[in-house]
Structures are given as structure tokens and as C-alpha cells.
Amino acid sequence: MSVFIAILDDNPADRKQSERLLSRERDVRVKNNEVIYFDTYGSRDAILPFCTKYDLFLIDISQSSPDGFMTAVDLRHHGAAGRMVLASSKIDYRSRYKEHEDFIFIEKPLVQKHFTELVDIAKEHRAKQPLRIELRGEKDTMLVTKDEILYLKEKGYYTIVALTGERTFHMAGGINKISHDLSPDEFIYTDNNTAINMAHVASREKNTFRMSDGAIIRFSIFSKSGIVKAWEKYAGSK
Questions:
Q1: What one-character DSSP code corresponds to residue 140?
Q2: Count of H helices and E strands in the chain?
Q3: Beta-carbon neighbour count of residue 33 at 10 Å?
Q4: What is the model's pTM?
Q5: Which of 7, 148, 191, 216 is buried deepest, with most CB atoms within 10 A?
């Protein structure tokens, strides 16, 4: 199993220490075919564009505002689904914010056993999550569930992926990059360059689908029979 971990710490020395200890844990785990990917960030703004990809966040923001706890809450609001771990140094997060079922509180300084436990928590969390689809852009990567995808529009060398929460992602390459993750029972191609998630269709009229975000997706009358048949089969099963 692979897990993705983010270290978000505005103290450079603490950030470096976490990198070192997590690297040790990664080297031990790889012998058992366990793969740990991790990235480090020094601010909320740096991690925000990538926050949906991680299974666990190790957070301590104590030298700027918002602090670590409020940053974790903000990441949640932006779609981050990983476990949130608040590491207290200058700020005692547990004392300030009380116990919170969504967050884990630990105390610095961190030692090797902390990272053994954190990787186990990340593994357990990932095992419980629905299958996530990897969207690769030119410079970044996003992990999403199929339910987050509204529709995809191929534009030559990239594909626009419309997502829930008024989000979009520019995926490098064509829809075929992830076509194996788009079940024909849930997704349908309205033309060679467009696929929609039927769960996000608000209505159908003649040769168009209105999506849940208000977008209008048109299809050709020459393809209408097959498209409508697939839509009616899906709608009838709900």
C-alpha cells in the first residue's frame, strides 16, 4: 500500500527534523512493500493547491496566523480528506481548542516512534477511503473520487475536469488517461472529447444535459439514441 503524507510546519528546523525521521520510516517500510510519499510545506498558501492528495497531515503553524488548528480547518473546507495531526510546540492546540474527534493532538519534540504511529494511522485511513483517481497536471497532481467529477472536456493536449465545490483541474493529456476509472455505468461520452458523470446531471432536454453546476453539455442527434438509452438506464436504476 502507498500513503501520501504532508508535513506543514513554519519552523524550518522542526520541518527538517520531521523530514529526516519520516525518511527513516520510509526506508524501513519499503522492505515490506509499503511505499511512503511525503512533501513538506512552510505555509498554508503553499499546500492549499495540493491538499486533496494526502492521507495524513502533520501540522504546526505557530509563528503566523492562522495557527495550525485553524489552518487544518481551512484545509478541510477546501476538500482535504486526510487525517489531521496537530503537533504542539509554542501553541498547545489541545488546551486552546479542546478535544476534537476529527483531529489528533501530539506534543513536540517528535521522535521516531511518532512517525511509526503516524504512518499506521495514514494506512488505516487510506484503506477506508473510496477509490481515488489521480489527475496529473503539468506541475501538480490531485486525487479525487469519481463522485467529485462532474464532467471532462478534452482540449487538445489537456483536459478540463470540472469538480464539485466549483473547482476545476487542467489534466495533462486526454480523457483516455483515466478512462479505465470511468465506469460506463456512471459516465457516458457525449462526443469524442466530452464525458459526463450521470450522477451530476440535473436535467435532460432534447439534445442537451444540464449539469449540477449549470453547465450545458450538448450531443449530436446522430448519437442521441445510444446516449439517451444509457441515461435512461442509469436514471431508472436510481
A1: -
A2: 6, 15
A3: 8
A4: 0.65
A5: 7
